[in-house]
Design a protein that fits this description.
The chain has 4 helices and 14 strands. By secondary structure, it is an alpha+beta fold.
Length: 278
């Protein structure tokens, strides 16, 4: 299945209409066809089915003092990086430039007018993707008037006909819960259509029980299960104390799952290793 050829075909036609920029003093939303930014070059052709190393992290736009050191420490040996609140600011880009043999694909949610920096979700890997897609919500966060972007990619697996699908989500936060469900359903279409292993992860912003239930219902329908962590330091909602960062998998077994105690963001990173299930 082709996830994307040009950023507006097939399954994704519902997201491809041109956006009239919302009226905002601080942010603008680019036309959908201009919402993909790619940097770097891949150095590998496939994933190792016996060990796939993954990092999932909301990096707070690289705004914390220790971000650069923490990101290099956590990400340098990973096969797949799933980053939320990635931003093309100088701090972030200077760190990415140090990752030789990695390619990074950003799905843009919005651009900050003052700096020109683009923000969204990013997938990085030394392995060449077979497909890449962006799903951007029509619904906007109130006040800031910005959408959320989901990025998705498939990666070849060495010695196997099947591929790994990864879906990197930053969930709608302050909108109606029905809008969050719409965002989930757009992701579920990809999961349902894919016959191989899947990782669905990110900052879901599951700050209330209705959102949490919607997310868990999707995982049940698609035969996925949630990854549990040793040293579980994942961020919780300030108001409900529910976890908002999650990882769901299908067709994989967990070799290791940890939440390192780093301070480079207001979220803790989910650091995992998987093997493809027989």
């Amino acid at each position: 299945m082709k996830l994307i050829l040009a950023l507006s075909i097939g399954l994704f036609s519902f997201t491809s209409r041109a956006w009239a920029n919302p009226i905002s003093d601080k942010f603008e939303v680019p036309a959908f066809e201009n919402s993909h930014i790619q940097t770097g070059y891949t150095s590998e052709t496939s994933l190792d089915p016996a060990n796939i190393k993954v990092l999932v992290w909301n990096i707070y736009k690289a705004g914390k003092k220790s971000f650069a050191a923490d990101f290099k420490k956590l990400a340098s040996d990973r096969d797949v990086l799933m980053i939320q609140e990635a931003e093309t600011n100088q701090d972030m880009m200077s760190v990415l430039d140090q990752f030789s043999g990695f390619q990074f694909d950003l799905g843009v949610s919005f651009i900050t007018k003052k700096t020109g920096a683009a923000t969204g979700t990013m997938i990085g890997s030394p392995v060449e993707k077979s497909n890449f897609a962006i799903l951007r919500t029509k619904e906007l966060e109130p006040i800031v008037l910005t959408p959320k972007a989901v990025t998705a990619a498939t990666f070849p697996i060495k010695g196997m006909d099947t591929e790994l699908l990864v879906i990197n989500i930053h969930g709608l936060n302050m909108t109606e819960n029905t809008d969050f469900v719409k965002q989930l359903l757009s992701c579920e279409k990809l999961i349902a259509a894919h016959k191989g292993p899947v990782i669905f992860a990110g900052d879901f912003n599951t700050s209330d029980i209705d959102k949490l239930n919607a997310m868990m219902s999707l995982s049940f329908r698609q035969g996925m299960y949630t990854v549990g962590f040793k040293n579980d330091r994942r961020r919780k909602s300030t108001f409900s104390r529910l976890l908002i960062d999650h990882t769901f998998i299908r067709g994989l077994k967990v070799l290791d799952a940890d939440v390192p105690n780093v301070k480079g963001s207001d979220h803790k990173a989910m650091k995992m290793e998987f093997a493809v299930s027989e």
